[in-house]
Amino acid sequence: MKVAPSVLSADFGNLQRDVEAICDAGCDLVHIDVMDGHFVPNLTIGPVVVSSIAKCATKPLDIHLMVQNNTFFVELFAPLKPKYISFHIEEEKHPHRLIQKIRSLGIKPAIVLNPHTPPESIEYLIQELDMILLMSVNPGFGGQSFIDSVIPKATKLNEMKNKINPKCLIEVDGGVNDKNIQQLKDVGVDIVVAGSYVFKHKSKEEAIKSLQI
Ligand code: DX5
Ligand code: ZN
């Protein structure tokens, strides 16, 4: 299991210190939550701050867009060369076109599904994707409780993607901790995002290791 700590739970007054700490603690990716105050009722960071994160991160960036105008934001963040950019299917009229655009910029495309969005909604896109991100909380805030229905959903998605594109990874985001990590592993999840669990733990290294099962 790979681990992507969410910078949303970092201390933004000490961002460099916290980004270096999670990278030194052995994380696999650095998860960046971009919120525009429209798609979700919260506002986070833009390319100026993310470029500072990119300079001190020694692990690849995993950018999670929670925004209304996906194409605009993809163009803003592409020069920072993240490994992944993921966008919400609920907010995109032309997902196939956007996937191609992200790939043409040298970035791995991923789609995010909110807790209510069925895996079948992206059946004809799976072939084109490097990763699918399942939300296990409603997007917008860190520190929420894990929604258990993501477990049967990940099981279903894993079966679907193994038939269509077995290389496509499954990532889960929200409320992940040492209590639910085994269940996620058992249903074929490849990467977990963890914000409050990693940043509130007395040892970031211990927290990350406890998820890398
Ligand atoms: C929620 C974000 C998550 C969040 C995870 O909208 O996408 O990445 O920061 O935080 P925790 O692990 O605290 O639920
Ligand atoms: Zn996220």
Notes on the protein architecture:
This protein has 213 residues and is α/β, with parallel strands linked by helices. It has one domain (2-211): TIM Barrel. The protein contains eight helices and eight strands; from the N terminus they run βαβαβαβαββαβαβαα. Strands 1-8-7-6-5-4-3-2 form an eight-stranded parallel sheet. Bound molecules: D-xylitol-5-phosphate and zinc ion.
List bound small molecules: D-xylitol-5-phosphate, zinc ion
Compute the CA-based radius of gyration.
Answer: 16 Å
CATH topology: TIM Barrel
Strand order, main sheet: write it out. Answer: 1-8-7-6-5-4-3-2
The CATH class is: Alpha Beta
How would you classify the helix and strand content by structural class? alpha/beta
- Tell me the total number of β-strands: 8
Number of domains: 1
% residues in beta strands: 15-25%
Summarize the structure.
With 213 residues, the protein is an alpha/beta fold. Helix content is 34%, strand content 19%.
Strand and helix map with partners:
Blueprint: E1 2-5, H1 15-24, E2 30-35, H2 47-56, E3 61-66, H3 70-77, E4 84-88, H4 95-104, E5 108-113, E6 131-135, H5 150-164, E7 169-173, H6 181-186, E8 191-194, H7 196-200, H8 204-211
Parallel strand pairs: 1-8, 2-3, 3-4, 4-5, 5-6, 6-7, 7-8
D-xylitol-5-phosphate binds next to β2, β8 and α7.
